Task: structure prediction
Amino acid sequence: MKLHQKGYLLLTLNQSSSLWDYELIKSTLSEYGESGAYRAKTISIALDELSAAGLINRIEEKLDNIDGKMKLHFRYKLSDFGVSRMVDTGLLMTW
Result:
């Protein structure tokens, strides 16, 4: 049984200093064997929810032109509160 996607996103951010949303989406889609715009959007929504809850922080943004459409991207970093909650829920062990 795989870890839920929000847990996966938190663990992935814990292993890096920061990551762009498209890097997190690509990694998550690959990990769960998913594809398509709908699945990518659900991961983007999960990132929004984690950010709104204060578990991750948006630390940078950029606007990209992809196929003639402007797309806003965010760079995320795990917050101290996110680390604390991961420890509380058993997602992260401290020694």
